[in-house]
Amino acid sequence: MQTAAASAPRSVPLSRLTDNFLDGTSSVYLEELQRAWEADPKSVDESWDNFFQNFTGKAASSPGVSGQTIQESMRLLLLVRAYQVNGHMKAKLDPLGLDERVPPEDLNPALYGFTEADLDREFFIGVWRMSGFLSENRPVQTLRAILKRLEQAYCGTIGYEYMHISDREKCNWLREKIEQHVPSKYSKERQITILDRLIWGTKFENFLAQKWTAKRFGLEGCETLIPGMKEQIDRAADLGVESVVIGMPHRGRLNVLGNVVRKPLRQIFSEFAGGTKPAESGYSGSGDVKYHLGTSYDRPTRTGKHIHLSLVANPSHLEAVDPVVVGKTRAKQYYSDDYERKKNMAILLHGDGSFSGQGVVYETLHLSDLPNYTTGGTIHIVVNNQVAFTTDPRSSRSSPYCTDVAKALNAPIFHVNGDDVEAVVHACELAAEWRCQFKADVVVDIVCYRRFGHNEIDEPSFTQPKMYQVIKNHPTSLELYEKKLIESGQISEETVKKIHDKVYGILSEEFESSKDYVPKTQDWLAAYWSGFKSPEQLSRLRNTGVKPEVLKNVGKKITTLPPSFTAHRAIKRVYEQRAQMIETGDGVDWATAEALAFATLLAEGNHVRLSGQDVERGTFSHRHAVVHDQETGERYCPLDHVVTNQKEEMFTVSNSSLSEFGVLGFELGYSMENPNSLVCWEAQFGDFSNGAQVIFDQFLSSGEAKWLRQTGLVCMLPHGYDGQGPEHSSARLERFLQMSDDHPFVIPEMEVSLRKQIQECNWQVVNVTTPANYFHVLRRQLHRDFRKPLIIMSPKNLLRHSSCRSNLSEFDDVQGHPGFDKQGTRFKRLIKDKNDHGTVEPEIRRLVLCSGKVYYELDEERERVGAKDVAICRVEQLCPVPYDLLQRELKRYPNADVVWCQEEPMNMGAFSYIAPRLGTAMLSVNRGSFGDIKYVGRPPSAATATGFAAVHKMEQTELVQKALQAQKM
Questions:
Q1: Domain assignment present for 543
Q2: d(C-alpha 194, C-alpha 224), whole Å
Q3: Are residues 148 and 209 in the same domain?
Q4: From 910's CA, which of 87, 285, 651, 933 has a CA 20 to 30 Å away?
Q5: DSSP three-state, residue 923
């Protein structure tokens, strides 16, 4: 019976065979392999051919060495490989010396049959030089020398994890870099630069501690991050990177802002002293704490290049900024035509607890190689405190390292002792080289500590007494490096003192200047957004209608498939119907209206991006933006061909991964880069947006108020009660309305020429009922000189509803057409009753106000029962409330009961938001108040909807009938 080793195929590369060769019987296999090689070198894998040639020093068919000698050589090869795979587990990573790990057994030479007597024996190692082992040109070395180099390469203050990477080229590239690296390789000049940067990072924290006692989440214990990041950015710049987008948590943020991004120190000090935002910006938002703020600056590198750095503002949800940074980076790549991902790069900093504990970390990593989301690799730096707030690693993760999640993406991981500044610099530089070489993610895990606990006023000894007894007496990384350089004679104490004095002098000067510092608008607002209006600056309303000839032209392009394209017969019929809609101008449906909005914006030179789960076809099989050839599988997107020589990715529609948090964050970041883009995210079902609630809560609803950053991101959330159960009915409209910041009891200025209502509100929430209005609300996003997020409660059954149709004339800008009123063609915030009612209609007994698809059921029931004394108005824009139009309708029907009808339960939907505002409008025109509003809808409920079809039908019928009936409710 053959052994496992003996049955191994000859095609297996030498480097892939491991444990089998510890079996003593493997010599039989080796002898057979050698005989096969001697007979025909091509019969074995190339690596074995190289091995036998190098080992024997002879060509094939020459006598070989004994099986025993080959077996011994193979055991040595396994020992080398063990260091490459597990050497990091023996590395000196913990600066506090509290690491209790036991070195793995496979690093013990005795396991491979080597004894003390073998240490000074010479072994042939020429075969390994081709995979990077040992830089010296010495094919024969003693076992002692080999082990010393292995320990130096893999078990020093950097531990490398890379052998999990399946790509052999990448592994070999890293082996060369790792095994040829010599610690302390830096020249005296570089060491002085590193020292200077370390002094800046250390003195900055000391200076803040002297001047203020407030929380700042300082970097003490990981000051080496500053020279590490600066050298990393310098190296990236040398390799062609021109712009870096950075995202990070609180810890060390101020230090990174001041010393890496080069935010003016006087500005940071002014903010510490309670400085305000620039008066000329016109913003009256809330602001945020210092360690949440972002900024962007251009700065020179060590080698004389210039690079643009931007640090993205983020909330206390530690890793929520990750996808935002990646999305912003992707947008930068689009706008700079950086399709090779060379010029724009992302760096994300993490904490050890959050990197292993927060799911959005994996969601972000998961986007790294997806075609429409990749940025060509992100550099991840983990500031590994070895404790997450008060939780020890054994309680916060199930894996040996906090970085193990990155292995799923085949990312190399460099663990480095945070006290060894040169090691940190080398790991950071190597990460930059990897990212620029392979356009893939990489992780630098800086193992460090927090000198002052979670923040400067925390008492860490409550929960980590042993650790903080060690920290109390532990020298700083700066003290260790200064001692090393002085003792080695590389630098004098006098030179060190001069650097300290210089740094402290500059810090003091900046502190004095901060007392008179006046913030500038450019400190807060990005360059692309120059000229866009703040909430305090009036923005004139603009029409969104399009010339009929343009509509016809782009309409033809987006409804035409290539003659040679074999579309599915159902899809072909859909496109034929759309072409007919454009040709006749009648019955334009929802999907065609959307495509027209996208196409006309593209024709005007804007960038359009639609992303989300299954958005190419559409969850409800309505969009079909991408069509697949039924014979070849080839993809075709008509919206890629709206304009001649249309720029690559000018229109992007992309099915995303099954992620809400990560993908919505990505699209938010993308939308923040440039205002001349319509960026849309569509939830598969509206309730799926729950998975991205942190983005809605912490970024989208409040980002402008906190950080003065506008975004025009559109969120399409399918919503409507169709009997599909609790999870597929409601997009939780009430949550978005609850987060709206308009005042329920104050009617703002509503005169058209003076109205700033939308500008002053944090976002817009709409529930649109016609394709034309959908077309206009999308175009409105770009046809104004400010940006606001847009939440659309998009329909499901209205996508094909026979009454949910618009005429093409409602899209154009021709005076006198149905979409044109005295103000022009634009989005209708409220749609009045469809009947030709006059200015005052005293005979109408009931005014039913509603929003969304329930309108069609109400209208159908009104027609069925002939209730001509009932008026139905659609509130298309819920937030901000169209007070002027509500007042108009209340005056039109002076004797009517006022009813709010909704499908959702009373504690959900729009009722709790609309009722006080509707009451305010009623009070302003003497039509009663809040207490006079009659509610029709489902009763309060814990679940959003019933799961029983029969119950749903009964409830829906009852509420529709109740809304129209005559008696009091």
A1: no
A2: 9
A3: no
A4: 285
A5: helix
Compute CA 847 distance to the chain's CA centroid, rounded to the nearest angstrom: 45
Helix, coil or strand: residue 493 = helix
Report d(CA 758, CA 787) in Å as an integer.
Answer: 10
Tell me the β-bridge partners of 938: 905
Question: Are 638 and 565 contained in the same domain?
Answer: yes
What confidence tier does 523 reach under pLDDT thresholds 50, 70, 90? low
Residues near 128 by Cβ (< 8 Å), separated by ≥ 6?
A: 77, 80, 134
Q: Do 502 and 634 belong together in one domain? A: no
Do residue 318 and residue 439 come from a single domain?
yes
How far is residue 427's CA from residue 421's CA, in Å, rounded to a whole number? 10
What is the tens place of the pLDDT at every residue in 906-944?
999 999 999 999 999 999 999 999 999 999 999 999 999
CATH number, residue 59: 1.10.287.1150
Are residues 121 and 237 part of one domain? no
Residue 833: DSSP 8-state: -
Domain end marker among 100, 133, 155: 155
- Residue keyed to tokens 């079909």: 624
Tokens of 585: 């101008």
pLDDT band at residue 398 using 50, 70 and 90 as cut-offs:
confident
Query: Over the Cα atoms of the chain, what is R_g?
Result: 34
Parallel/antiparallel/unpaired status of strands 627-628 and 306-311: unpaired
Nearest-angstrom CA–CA distance, 413 and 423? 14
813-837: average pLDDT: 82
Query: What's the mean pLDDT in 769-785?
Result: 96
Same domain, 805 and 839: no
Report CA-CA distances (Å) from 775 to 195, 544, 597, 612, 768: 59, 9, 5, 20, 10
Question: SS3 of 242, please?
Answer: coil
Of 586, 482, 641, 505, whose CA–CA distance to 805 is shortest? 586
> What tokens appear for 841 in the block?
């209609």
Q: What is the CATH number of the domain that holds 634?
A: 3.40.50.12470
User: What domain range includes position 960?
Assistant: 831-964
H-helix segments, 65-185: 67-86, 126-129, 143-154, 168-180
Are 219 and 362 within one domain?
A: yes
Residue 12: band (very low, low, confident or very high) from pLDDT cuts 50, 70, 90: low
Q: Is cis: bond before 880, omega within 30 of 0?
A: yes
CATH of the domain at 881: 3.40.50.11610
Reported as a pLDDT band with limits 50, 70 and 90, residue 456 is: low
- Per the model's pLDDT, the better-predicted residue between 742 and 819 turns out to be 742
Identity of residue 308: H
Residue 879 banded pLDDT, cuts 50, 70, 90: very high
pLDDT 10s digits, 193-249? 999 999 999 999 999 888 887 777 789 899 999 999 999 999 999 999 999 999 998
Asked whether residue 135 carries a pLDDT value surpassing 70, the answer given is no
Which residue is associated with the tokens 């964050």? 665
Q: What's the CA gap between 455 and 468, in Å, rounded?
A: 14
User: SS3 for 146?
Assistant: helix
| pLDDT surpassing 70 at residue 1 | no
DSSP per residue over 405-456, as a string? Answer: GGGGGT--EEEEETT-HHHHHHHHHHHHHHHHHH---EEEEEE---TTSSST
User: How many angstroms separate the CA atoms of 656 and 681, rounded?
Assistant: 10
pLDDT of residue 211: 86
Q: Which of 617, 863, 968, 912 is nearest to 736 (CA)?
A: 912
The answer to whether residue 743 is domain-embedded is: no
pLDDT at 286 over 70: no
Identify the bridge partners of residue 378 per DSSP, sorted by sequence position. Answer: 346
Residue 366 CA: distances (Å) to CA of 321, 380, 443, 611: 15, 14, 14, 15
Confidence of residue 156 (pLDDT cuts 50, 70, 90): very high
User: Phi and psi of 462, rounded to 5°?
Assistant: -55, -40
Contacts for 644 with CB less than 8 Å, ≥ 6 apart: none
Q: What is the largest CA-CA distance in the chain?
A: 113
